[in-house]
């Protein structure tokens, strides 16, 4: 039985939705409280039992590499100041997992970014996690997908039903339900208008994919937006072998969207024992002022 041992995190996008903050800083390094967004993704991978991680970077993304590297200067400074609690955080960060990096030299789309991982992945099935989506759940979202993969031994995509107004923003499934929460995929459509969408089941930025996707991507033509679309390659793969959608358990935050980013920041703060009481009191004060 094949198991998932490797994960790929595409992080080469320009982050234009968060300009000007992302002009000189990767969007993946924008913090949710005191932790950059991409660290939440890496921690989800590790908590799912995977330790081999490849991050696809692009120009001006050096800070992502530095974040997961050892920082001798910082460690020395914290040790000298006796700040041992912070020292442990920094040391643990450099030992989270085996994190590798490769650069996507041109912004040719998500499909092309995934294709850049072909040598790292080889002929194994692998996970893909998009850095725009953070999921809070009792069982890590990726672990839910890998558990289903180990059962069905076929590609699995995380899905969620979205409102009518959001259908055209996502890749949408044409699928039938095999059992509660598990869908057998017949086709996928990238960002269809509502009147042409086969369902409201949207792809949510977590995938477990068979390595057969790489030769498909190698011959892929540009799709929506003039980019190599992963959804288009998955459509081809779906014709060759079974593919499943999993309605995962948990709350998803679209942190590539400004409102979603704010929601994540507020709710993660309220879940922090060191912040919850004071922050809740502040929010109650703000709400009272708004009502008045």
Describe the structure.
α3 runs antiparallel to α4. Helix content is 36%, strand content 25%. The chain folds into two domains: 6-254, Spore Coat Polysaccharide Biosynthesis Protein SpsA, Chain A (Alpha-Beta Complex); 257-292, no CATH class. It is α/β, with parallel strands linked by helices and 292 residues long. It starts with 5 loop residues before the first strand and ends with a helix.
At a glance:
The protein has 292 residues and is an alpha/beta fold. The protein contains 11 helices and 13 strands.
Any descriptors?
single chain; 292 residues; alpha/beta; Spore Coat Polysaccharide Biosynthesis Protein SpsA, Chain A; 2 domains; nine-stranded mixed beta sheet
- Sheet having the most strands: 9 strands, mixed
Name the CATH superfamily classification of the largest domain: Spore Coat Polysaccharide Biosynthesis Protein SpsA, Chain A
Helix amount, in percent?
25-40%
Q: Which fold name fills CATH's third level, the topology of the largest domain? A: Spore Coat Polysaccharide Biosynthesis Protein SpsA, Chain A
The H-and-E topology, N to C, reads as: EEEHEHHHEHHEEHEEEEHHEEHH
Strand order of the largest sheet: 5-4-1-6-11-8-12-10-9
Proper CATH architecture of the largest domain: Alpha-Beta Complex
The first-level CATH class of the largest domain is given as: Alpha Beta
């Amino acid at each position: 039985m094949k198991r998932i041992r490797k994960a790929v995190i595409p992080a080469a996008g320009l982050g234009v939705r968060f300009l000007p903050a992302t002009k000189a800083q990767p969007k993946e390094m924008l913090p949710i409280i005191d932790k950059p967004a991409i660290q939440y993704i890496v921690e989800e991978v590790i908590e799912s039992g995977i330790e081999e991680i490849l991050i696809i970077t692009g120009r001006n993304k050096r800070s992502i590499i530095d974040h997961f590297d050892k920082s001798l200067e910082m460690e020395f400074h914290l040790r000298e100041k006796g700040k041992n609690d912070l020292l442990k955080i920094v040391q643990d960060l450099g030992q989270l997992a085996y994190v590798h990096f490769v650069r996507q030299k041109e912004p040719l789309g998500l499909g092309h970014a995934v294709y850049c991982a072909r040598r790292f992945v080889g002929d194994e099935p692998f996970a893909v996690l998009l850095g725009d989506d953070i999921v809070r759940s009792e069982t890590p979202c990726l672990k839910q997908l890998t558990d289903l993969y180990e059962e069905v031994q076929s590609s699995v995509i995380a899905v969620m039903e979205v409102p009518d107004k959001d259908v055209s923003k996502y890749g949408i499934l044409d699928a039938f339900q095999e059992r509660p929460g598990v869908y057998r995929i017949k086709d996928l459509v990238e960002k269809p208008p509502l009147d042409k969408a086969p369902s409201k089941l949207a792809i949510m930025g977590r995938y477990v994919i068979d390595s057969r996707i790489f030769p498909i991507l190698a011959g892929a033509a540009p799709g929506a937006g003039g980019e190599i679309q992963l959804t288009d390659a998955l459509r081809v793969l779906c014709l060759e072998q079974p593919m499943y959608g999993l309605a995962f358990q948990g709350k998803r935050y679209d942190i590539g969207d400004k409102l979603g980013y704010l929601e994540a920041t507020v709710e993660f703060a309220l879940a922090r024992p060191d912040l919850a009481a004071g922050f809740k009191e502040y929010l109650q004060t703000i709400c009272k002022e708004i009502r008045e």
